[in-house]
Amino acid sequence: MSPFTEQAMLEGKIQQPFEFRPSQSPILVSMPHSGLFVTPSVAAGLTESAKKLPDTDWYIPELYDFLERLGVGCIKANYSRYVIDLNRPYDDKPLYETKTTGLFPDILFADSPVFEVAGEPGEVHKQQCKEQIWQPYHQTIEAELQRIKAQFGFAILFDAHSIAAQVPMLFEGTLPDFNWGTNQGKSCDQSLAHVVTQVLSPNYSQVVNGRFKGGYITREFGRPDANIHAIQLELSQATYLVDELAQQQSYQLDDTKLPAIQQQLKDVIAALLSLSFSS
Known about the structure:
By secondary structure, the protein is of the alpha/beta class. Helices cover 27% and strands 17% of the residues.
């Protein structure tokens, strides 16, 4: 997988902002930060460090490649978060009181610039990204959750993320392996957090509503009073990447770690599929 793929804008229109597969079950999985495409306007201004797309949720689609076999729907972003961050609100209102990145990131998690001086895209480009990437992604999630609810009586949105185990700009120390977010219990019925934490192997560490309590997608779409439940998983990349290479900003799956983490993720999704909520 190339860490830097340029996608052209043809006739002023962004091409295929995401991939979507409808669900045959009550669950939809969202992958807003796995995209590797950048627009020419973004590519032209990136710093050398940013060109490696270090803050990508690496290999999330590969980790969850079993979803279709389970009948679980999926929406996966194609564009990098450096083009636009789909897990931030349209008005870019801050989600955290601590230091973080916004709708159009200008700093890396390493606390260095995303763009060279005067290299950041202008307002026309940003508005285009909001209209042609952000809005369709969120509209598709909303429509699919409503369709799922109409079919099954309830819907579950699983927002799938990953992050380096150590990011000093965002948090101190080392993250647990599994970081669950339910917006302090507001985005889903408590049974969701219970079932995923119970099914998790003791070989993995975990926390609920620690540093990551759920981003905009979890907070916006999680409406348990309307029987639409949302939960976010921020998975430590130490659970599946080759550690030594990741430290050098070369991101490769660790074949020795992969079978165990994929089995664990399958168990999590299977446990969620066992849940049912009355209308």
